[in-house]
Amino acid sequence: MAASLWRAVMGSSSSSSSGGVDDPAAGGVEFWHGAERAGWLTKQGEYIKTWRRRWFVLKQGRLFWFKDAAVTRGSVPRGIIPVSSCLTVKGAEDVLNRQFAFELSNPAETMYFIADAEKEKEEWINSIGRSIVQHSRSVTDAEVVDYDSRPQPPPQPKKSEASEPSE
Which 3-state string (H, E, C) describes the chain? Predict the structure, then answer.
């Protein structure tokens, strides 16, 4: 699931990653410090659909996960999800029939996660949602129009002023 998304978007496989900031899949993100959000989540495996507890780090539009919380510069992520390719993040307790579940989806697939508490679930959904909006490729800076700073056309005279005969 996530690994195929990661390979498709980043053009590499998790087994070939060298880890750290120099790893092209990491996109130069220093994931080992200053995370926007970090914590334990349970996620479903891509091939063998078992649930495993992983340490997640959200930073600069990427969601990294690791086997343990001792993340250093030399750590190798088990996977990376570029959130800019994602469309939605929302609760999924009804889908999985599990408490504190949420889903993250892109046009091709949906990944499921389980937090340890309702508050954590909501915090992850909010953080990932902000990151999706912030890093979305759907609108580039060149496409944003600031209507307040556009040059305004000169005021046109009223019809009654322009059509009055001069004497």
Answer: CHHHHHHHHHCCCHHHCCCCCCCHHHCCCCCCCCCCEEEEEEEECCCCCCEEEEEEEEECCEEEEECCCCCCCCCCCCEEEEHHHCCEEEECHHHHCCCCEEEEECCCCEEEEECCCHHHHHHHHHHHHHHHHHHCCCCCHHHCCCCCCCCCCCCCCCHHHHHCCCC
